[in-house]
Design brief:
With about 280 residues, this protein is an alpha+beta fold. It has one domain (about 25-255). Helices cover about 15% and strands about 25% of the residues.
């Protein structure tokens, strides 16, 4: 036992998740395993690293049916990813929708939406992560909030189309698109690209844009998450033409920071008791 316990202690203190230090928030999803077709062939992320993902690469042109609306590649959500590592929630998104698309409904143009987090997976969306969409041809942004701002108790603008939520008994409801109000909690580390990249997925000539961010889990707890309950991450553009949702890895596998701090002390105490036990 004198040799086993120190081995357990060293293993716990020295252990690191498979992705620790690997993901850099820079808008490049290669460190998630997402590469161009000539390198990897599809949107599938690294295997065995706890990355959850939803892939919906179903268009290759304009005016194509998406879900729940129409819009084609310019309003297509291709893939969304999430993982929890080192006290941070990482989120990544691939889309055919340029983040600098002008918000001008009269011209049938709709800007980028915000990321909505639903702690109970019941369609309530208790937390929002703000993306400042463009509201004028000169590049002016919406007035609400900060880029990457994390907001609790949010008020949501809604999309044009109904979507079905698995936890809701009604036939459908319009999805949250962007924040119009909320209580500021802090900032996510947030990046996005505005130059379309080709060579990805099934439609290699389509242009794609990428979002990437990390959010401290303490902000989620301050926003009402209990640290254990599963949650959804939802994204769509401001018209709601194509919605996409991902469930992060099981939150129960992520200990509270205080629990991690106490674990080595408990093991040291157990070692001391073992040493004092008579032979």
């Amino acid at each position: 036992m004198k040799t086993t316990l120190p081995w357990i202690l060293t293993g716990l203190l020295g252990a690191s998740p498979a992705l620790a230090g690997v993901i850099t928030v820079d808008g490049n999803l290669a460190d998630w395993g997402v590469k161009r077709t000539g390198q990897a062939s599809d949107w599938t992320p690294h295997a065995g690293t706890g990355i959850e993902h939803t892939i919906e690469d179903q268009t290759g042109g304009a005016g194509v049916w998406l879900n729940p609306g129409w819009g084609g590649q310019a309003y297509d959500a291709e893939a969304i990813y999430a993982t929890i590592d080192g006290g941070l929630l990482y989120i990544a998104l691939a889309t055919g929708h340029n983040p600098h698309t002008l918000e001008k409904p009269s011209a049938n143009s709709y800007g980028a939406g915000d990321f909505a987090i639903d702690f109970g997976k019941d369609g309530r969306y208790e937390l929002g992560i703000n993306m400042k969409h463009v509201v004028s041809a000169q590049g002016a942004k919406e007035s609400f909030g900060a880029l990457g701002g994390v907001y609790a108790d949010p008020t949501w603008a809604l999309g044009l189309f109904e979507e079905t939520h698995p936890a809701i008994s009604q036939p459908g409801r319009k999805p949250p698109t962007h924040l119009t109000a909320g209580d500021y909690l802090g900032l996510a580390d947030f990046r996005y690209t505005t130059l379309g990249a080709t060579g990805y997925g099934a439609w290699t000539q389509d242009k794609h844009y990428f979002y990437e961010m990390s959010v401290d889990l303490k902000l989620l707890r301050e926003g009402g998450w209990d640290g254990l309950t599963a949650f959804d991450i939802h994204w769509t553009m401001n018209c709601g033409n194509d919605s996409i949702v991902v469930d992060p890895p099981a939150p129960a596998s992520v200990p509270e920071p205080g629990t991690l701090a106490l674990l080595p002390l408990g093991l040291l105490g157990l070692m001391t008791l073992r040493r004092r036990r008579p032979a």
